Amino acid sequence: MKKGRSPLPDAPLPGLGEAPLFPPAAETAEPHYHGHRERLRQRFAEAEGRLPDYELLELILFRSIPRRDVKPLAKALIARFGSLAEVLGAPIARLREIDGVSDGVAGDLKIVEAAGHRLAKGGIAKRPVLSTSAALIDYCRSTMAFAEREIFRILFLDTKNGLIADEVQQRGTVNHTPVYPREVVKRALELSATALILVHNHPSGDPSPSSADVSMTRTIADVAGPLGIVVHDHIIIGRDGHVSLKAQRLF
Protein backbone atom coordinates (compact mmCIF):
# COMPACT_ATOMS: atom_id res chain seq x y z
CA MET A 1 0.00 0.00 0.00
CA LYS A 2 1.30 3.38 -0.98
CA LYS A 3 1.68 6.10 1.59
CA GLY A 4 -0.90 8.94 1.59
CA ARG A 5 -3.81 6.81 0.35
CA SER A 6 -6.51 5.65 2.77
CA PRO A 7 -7.96 2.18 2.35
CA LEU A 8 -11.42 1.79 0.78
CA PRO A 9 -14.20 1.39 3.36
CA ASP A 10 -15.66 -2.04 3.93
CA ALA A 11 -19.22 -0.81 3.14
CA PRO A 12 -20.30 1.27 0.12
CA LEU A 13 -20.91 4.97 0.67
CA PRO A 14 -24.44 6.36 0.63
CA GLY A 15 -25.59 6.91 -2.91
CA LEU A 16 -23.59 3.98 -4.28
CA GLY A 17 -26.31 1.38 -3.93
CA GLU A 18 -27.22 1.66 -0.23
CA ALA A 19 -29.82 3.83 1.57
CA PRO A 20 -28.47 7.00 3.23
CA LEU A 21 -27.63 6.85 6.92
CA PHE A 22 -30.34 9.43 7.75
CA PRO A 23 -33.20 9.06 5.24
CA PRO A 24 -35.56 12.06 4.91
CA ALA A 25 -39.08 11.81 6.29
CA ALA A 26 -41.53 10.30 3.85
CA GLU A 27 -43.03 13.04 1.70
CA THR A 28 -46.18 11.05 1.08
CA ALA A 29 -47.26 10.90 4.72
CA GLU A 30 -50.92 11.88 5.08
CA PRO A 31 -51.38 15.35 6.66
CA HIS A 32 -52.69 15.21 10.22
CA TYR A 33 -55.87 17.11 9.33
CA HIS A 34 -57.14 14.44 6.92
CA GLY A 35 -58.32 12.24 9.75
CA HIS A 36 -59.95 15.25 11.40
CA ARG A 37 -61.87 16.04 8.22
CA GLU A 38 -63.29 12.54 7.99
CA ARG A 39 -64.25 12.53 11.67
CA LEU A 40 -65.96 15.91 11.34
CA ARG A 41 -67.89 14.79 8.26
CA GLN A 42 -69.05 11.74 10.19
CA ARG A 43 -70.18 13.87 13.12
CA PHE A 44 -72.08 16.13 10.74
CA ALA A 45 -73.85 13.12 9.22
CA GLU A 46 -74.85 11.90 12.66
CA ALA A 47 -75.77 15.17 14.38
CA GLU A 48 -75.53 18.23 12.15
CA GLY A 49 -77.68 20.36 14.43
CA ARG A 50 -75.30 19.98 17.35
CA LEU A 51 -72.12 21.11 15.64
CA PRO A 52 -70.84 24.51 16.78
CA ASP A 53 -70.64 27.30 14.23
CA TYR A 54 -66.89 27.04 13.69
CA GLU A 55 -67.14 23.35 12.80
CA LEU A 56 -69.91 23.97 10.26
CA LEU A 57 -67.69 26.69 8.83
CA GLU A 58 -64.81 24.21 8.66
CA LEU A 59 -66.97 21.87 6.59
CA ILE A 60 -67.62 24.70 4.13
CA LEU A 61 -63.93 25.61 3.99
CA PHE A 62 -62.87 22.01 3.32
CA ARG A 63 -63.86 22.39 -0.32
CA SER A 64 -62.43 25.88 -0.70
CA ILE A 65 -59.07 24.95 0.86
CA PRO A 66 -58.44 21.24 0.22
CA ARG A 67 -54.82 21.01 1.42
CA ARG A 68 -54.65 22.91 4.67
CA ASP A 69 -55.87 22.70 8.25
CA VAL A 70 -58.81 25.14 8.18
CA LYS A 71 -59.80 24.99 11.86
CA PRO A 72 -57.69 28.07 12.80
CA LEU A 73 -59.20 30.04 9.93
CA ALA A 74 -62.75 29.01 10.86
CA LYS A 75 -62.18 30.08 14.46
CA ALA A 76 -60.61 33.38 13.35
CA LEU A 77 -63.65 34.18 11.20
CA ILE A 78 -66.10 33.40 14.00
CA ALA A 79 -64.01 35.46 16.44
CA ARG A 80 -64.07 38.46 14.08
CA PHE A 81 -67.72 38.39 13.03
CA GLY A 82 -69.46 36.59 15.91
CA SER A 83 -71.38 33.71 14.30
CA LEU A 84 -71.64 31.61 11.16
CA ALA A 85 -74.56 33.73 9.93
CA GLU A 86 -72.53 36.91 10.38
CA VAL A 87 -69.53 35.39 8.58
CA LEU A 88 -71.71 34.49 5.59
CA GLY A 89 -73.36 37.92 5.67
CA ALA A 90 -70.11 39.88 5.86
CA PRO A 91 -69.05 41.89 2.78
CA ILE A 92 -66.29 40.33 0.68
CA ALA A 93 -63.95 43.25 1.46
CA ARG A 94 -64.20 42.57 5.20
CA LEU A 95 -63.81 38.83 4.74
CA ARG A 96 -60.59 39.46 2.81
CA GLU A 97 -59.17 41.28 5.81
CA ILE A 98 -58.75 37.89 7.53
CA ASP A 99 -55.42 36.23 6.83
CA GLY A 100 -56.07 33.11 4.77
CA VAL A 101 -59.27 34.30 3.07
CA SER A 102 -58.60 34.56 -0.66
CA ASP A 103 -60.98 35.90 -3.27
CA GLY A 104 -61.97 32.31 -3.97
CA VAL A 105 -62.74 31.53 -0.33
CA ALA A 106 -64.74 34.74 0.09
CA GLY A 107 -66.65 33.97 -3.11
CA ASP A 108 -67.49 30.46 -1.89
CA LEU A 109 -68.84 31.86 1.37
CA LYS A 110 -71.08 34.26 -0.52
CA ILE A 111 -72.38 31.36 -2.65
CA VAL A 112 -73.38 29.54 0.54
CA GLU A 113 -75.09 32.72 1.76
CA ALA A 114 -77.03 33.04 -1.50
CA ALA A 115 -78.09 29.39 -1.31
CA GLY A 116 -79.35 29.98 2.22
CA HIS A 117 -81.42 32.94 1.02
CA ARG A 118 -82.97 30.82 -1.74
CA LEU A 119 -83.78 28.08 0.75
CA ALA A 120 -85.47 30.52 3.12
CA LYS A 121 -87.37 32.18 0.29
CA GLY A 122 -88.71 28.78 -0.74
CA GLY A 123 -90.67 28.72 2.51
CA ILE A 124 -92.81 31.67 1.41
CA ALA A 125 -92.69 31.61 -2.38
CA LYS A 126 -95.68 29.37 -3.17
CA ARG A 127 -97.89 29.78 -0.14
CA PRO A 128 -99.95 32.62 1.33
CA VAL A 129 -97.33 34.76 3.02
CA LEU A 130 -99.50 35.66 6.01
CA SER A 131 -100.02 31.97 6.84
CA THR A 132 -96.27 31.33 6.99
CA SER A 133 -95.20 34.05 9.40
CA ALA A 134 -92.34 32.00 10.86
CA ALA A 135 -90.96 31.28 7.40
CA LEU A 136 -91.32 34.96 6.51
CA ILE A 137 -89.31 36.04 9.54
CA ASP A 138 -86.67 33.39 8.85
CA TYR A 139 -86.36 34.64 5.29
CA CYS A 140 -86.10 38.28 6.32
CA ARG A 141 -83.54 37.51 8.99
CA SER A 142 -81.41 35.46 6.62
CA THR A 143 -81.34 38.23 4.01
CA MET A 144 -81.09 41.32 6.20
CA ALA A 145 -80.26 40.76 9.86
CA PHE A 146 -76.49 40.99 9.45
CA ALA A 147 -76.26 43.63 6.74
CA GLU A 148 -74.00 46.54 7.65
CA ARG A 149 -76.28 49.16 6.07
CA GLU A 150 -80.02 49.68 6.13
CA ILE A 151 -81.98 47.89 3.43
CA PHE A 152 -85.64 48.61 2.69
CA ARG A 153 -87.47 45.82 0.85
CA ILE A 154 -91.09 45.23 -0.07
CA LEU A 155 -92.99 41.99 -0.49
CA PHE A 156 -95.73 42.56 -3.09
CA LEU A 157 -98.76 40.29 -2.62
CA ASP A 158 -101.77 39.31 -4.71
CA THR A 159 -105.41 39.02 -3.65
CA LYS A 160 -104.71 35.65 -1.99
CA ASN A 161 -101.65 37.05 -0.20
CA GLY A 162 -99.36 35.07 -2.46
CA LEU A 163 -95.95 36.53 -3.22
CA ILE A 164 -95.79 38.37 -6.54
CA ALA A 165 -92.37 39.92 -6.04
CA ASP A 166 -89.74 40.56 -3.40
CA GLU A 167 -87.76 43.68 -4.20
CA VAL A 168 -85.13 45.79 -2.49
CA GLN A 169 -86.35 49.36 -2.93
CA GLN A 170 -83.54 51.29 -1.25
CA ARG A 171 -80.13 50.81 0.34
CA GLY A 172 -79.09 53.43 2.84
CA THR A 173 -76.50 54.23 5.47
CA VAL A 174 -75.87 52.57 8.82
CA ASN A 175 -78.90 54.28 10.32
CA HIS A 176 -81.09 55.71 7.54
CA THR A 177 -82.75 54.63 4.31
CA PRO A 178 -84.68 57.15 2.21
CA VAL A 179 -88.15 55.83 1.32
CA TYR A 180 -90.54 57.55 -1.08
CA PRO A 181 -94.18 56.49 -0.54
CA ARG A 182 -95.25 57.48 -4.06
CA GLU A 183 -92.55 55.24 -5.57
CA VAL A 184 -93.66 52.36 -3.35
CA VAL A 185 -97.29 52.69 -4.45
CA LYS A 186 -96.32 53.22 -8.09
CA ARG A 187 -94.41 49.94 -8.10
CA ALA A 188 -97.33 48.14 -6.43
CA LEU A 189 -99.65 49.33 -9.20
CA GLU A 190 -97.17 48.21 -11.88
CA LEU A 191 -97.19 44.71 -10.38
CA SER A 192 -100.97 44.68 -9.81
CA ALA A 193 -100.30 44.03 -6.12
CA THR A 194 -103.16 44.41 -3.68
CA ALA A 195 -101.11 44.19 -0.49
CA LEU A 196 -97.65 44.98 0.81
CA ILE A 197 -95.35 43.89 3.60
CA LEU A 198 -92.63 46.41 4.31
CA VAL A 199 -89.34 45.16 5.76
CA HIS A 200 -86.16 46.90 6.75
CA ASN A 201 -83.22 46.20 9.03
CA HIS A 202 -81.44 48.03 11.83
CA PRO A 203 -77.68 47.38 11.57
CA SER A 204 -77.32 48.44 15.22
CA GLY A 205 -78.97 45.14 16.13
CA ASP A 206 -81.88 46.71 18.02
CA PRO A 207 -85.12 46.28 16.05
CA SER A 208 -87.07 48.87 18.04
CA PRO A 209 -88.92 51.20 15.62
CA SER A 210 -88.04 54.87 15.49
CA SER A 211 -90.60 57.65 15.19
CA ALA A 212 -89.48 58.04 11.56
CA ASP A 213 -90.21 54.34 10.93
CA VAL A 214 -93.73 54.71 12.28
CA SER A 215 -94.40 57.94 10.42
CA MET A 216 -93.18 56.51 7.10
CA THR A 217 -95.35 53.39 7.51
CA ARG A 218 -98.46 55.48 8.20
CA THR A 219 -97.76 57.65 5.17
CA ILE A 220 -97.43 54.67 2.83
CA ALA A 221 -100.62 53.13 4.23
CA ASP A 222 -102.48 56.43 3.79
CA VAL A 223 -101.33 56.80 0.16
CA ALA A 224 -101.92 53.15 -0.76
CA GLY A 225 -105.30 52.68 0.92
CA PRO A 226 -107.47 54.76 -1.46
CA LEU A 227 -105.96 52.79 -4.37
CA GLY A 228 -107.03 49.45 -2.94
CA ILE A 229 -103.59 48.46 -1.66
CA VAL A 230 -103.30 47.31 1.95
CA VAL A 231 -100.14 47.51 4.03
CA HIS A 232 -100.30 44.29 6.05
CA ASP A 233 -97.24 44.98 8.17
CA HIS A 234 -93.90 46.66 8.54
CA ILE A 235 -91.30 44.33 10.03
CA ILE A 236 -88.01 45.61 11.42
CA ILE A 237 -85.18 43.08 11.56
CA GLY A 238 -82.17 43.23 13.87
CA ARG A 239 -79.52 40.87 15.15
CA ASP A 240 -81.37 40.76 18.45
CA GLY A 241 -84.78 39.87 17.01
CA HIS A 242 -87.57 41.55 15.10
CA VAL A 243 -90.53 43.87 15.69
CA SER A 244 -93.87 43.92 13.86
CA LEU A 245 -95.37 47.40 13.76
CA LYS A 246 -98.77 45.84 13.16
CA ALA A 247 -98.47 43.68 16.26
CA GLN A 248 -97.41 46.77 18.20
CA ARG A 249 -100.46 48.62 16.79
CA LEU A 250 -98.29 51.45 15.58
CA PHE A 251 -100.24 52.08 12.38
From TrEMBL:
Please provide the record's keywords in A-Z order.
Hydrolase, Metal-binding, Metalloprotease, Protease, Zinc
Every MPN domain range: 129-251
Domain of life per record = Bacteria
The family database entries (SUPFAM superfamilies) matched by this protein are listed as: JAB1/MPN domain, RuvA domain 2-like
**Does the record bear Ligase in its keywords?**
no
TM ranges are none
Q: Name one GO biological process term.
A: proteolysis
Keyword Hydrolase listed? The answer is yes
Which portions of the sequence form the region Disordered? 1-37
* Xref: InterPro entries: MPN (IPR037518), RadC_JAB (IPR025657), RuvA_2-like (IPR010994), UPF0758 (IPR001405), UPF0758_CS (IPR020891)
Can you name one GO molecular function term for this protein? metal ion binding
The Swiss-Prot or TrEMBL record describes its family as follows: Belongs to the UPF0758 family.
* Protein's UniProt name: MPN domain-containing protein
